[in-house]
Write a structure and sequence with these properties.
heterodimer; A: alpha/beta; Rossmann fold; six-stranded mixed beta sheet; 10 helices; B: MetI-like fold
Chain lengths: ~250, ~280
Amino acid sequence: MEYETKIETWNLNLYYGDFLALKNVNIRIPHRNITAIIGPSGCGKSTLLRCFNRMNDLVEHIKVEGKIFIEGQNILVPTTDLIYLRRKVGMVFQRPNVFDLSIYNNLRFGLRIHRMLKNKNDIMQAIENGLEHVGLWKELKDKLRKNARTLSLEQQQRLCIARVLILKPDIILLDEPCSALDPVSTLKIEELLRALRTEYSLVIVTHNMQQAARVSDYTGFLYLGQLVEFGDTDQIFTNPKEKLTENYISGHFG
Amino acid sequence: MNVAKIREKVAFTILGLITLLVVIPILLTIFYVVKNGAGAVSWEFLTQPPRAGMKQGGIFPAIVGTILLIIGTMLFSLPLGILSAIYLVEYAKDNLFTRLIKLSVVNLSGIPSIVYGLFGFTLFVVILRFGTSILAGSLTLAIMSLPVIITATKEALESVPFSFREISLSLGASRWQTIRYCVLPYAIPGILTGTVLSLSRAAGETAPILFTVAAFYLPRLPHSIFDQVMALPYHLYVISTQVPNMPMKLSFATGLVLIGLVFLMNLVSIILRAHYRKKKLW
């Protein structure tokens, strides 16, 4: 497959204590596209995703071997600037986890942390752009002081995406971003993700195969910690090379 | 009504009565102290030193002494306790060493206060040559309060959901920024509760101050942290057991003032808690 690579792993192994959770994973995540990672529960999808911004560091007794290159830099070396890495590789979680703060302060948080934008007008402009980007500006522009927890779940998840976008990342990792949402909200978030793919490289973990088929350009199938197959989404869903992949997408297990 | 409902009613009634039994001693104690002591509490009692073999005058030096000891205890135990709890919860890796520390903290809270008194006397009064002084007394009380403050702070920090830290770190915040902005604001009410509880206990303790700071009779106020002071719990002990023919109402009045002081501290913590709940961050 010919495409520009954004993230590349080399022989990635990950241990939880003695348990080998990711086995020799070699994956190339393309630039400015949506890559879906599918597989049954417990196959290591989220664990793989959390390698890309080193969130696994927070979990004790985890050991990672191999290399992960983002724009030519191996991010697994100890000298990696995690603060910069996580600004450039944003993450959206399963539950819309807004801070118990106003909408304004939710968006302001990252700017403060990274000491970006001192000027009040610039901050306001960034917040407007962020909300505009996720289609919330019109609804919320007069409610910026309202607590973000009063929003609907879909709005909260959009706000979480805006909170990431405001930091100008290159890559956005999404860990089952729609699993807490109803079907209509899910479709709307997917629409948003399709719009974002022209500017960002997105990686989405999902156990919902229809979602992967609808939203992604490339798909990787992970099973028991191994990357069984990776390819064009159309090809994976219509003409998988591996028997295991075929069984999974046709619903024989998982 | 069916049998299950009746059973539930009976169970709830019994549980309610048992709960009431817990409240009764507290109410009775307060009622008894107020009934016997309130008559003796006057402006003079609160603002004058004791006179005539402590049978007249007031307890002003003891009030000042106890307040000074509370402040001193707070100054030492709060930063030490809260910072070590933050370290244990947020930074320390789970290994044998930290497990040992956690175990010691739990066990420290089980040590009798008189043992803390002896320890404080040996270390601060004798070895470090602070003498019987506010400094030695505050340090002793601070060490006694530490386990409770650490445990309360730890529990408060641990009760903040992990996802709060996760979001903050995923946005590129440092560990300290995460603690400062996403953990502490939610933990502060719990920390305050535990801290005030432990300081209240320190305020009422006699044993730890017995050899380290408390004066039997010292009507003048202290000039420095190396001076002795009178303190309410010790004064109460003295007038109740060491002075013959002491009017009982003075003992109760002294107890009432001590309870009042502790109540005041709790009030401050309630106000602070409400304040922190309103504005959490920036």
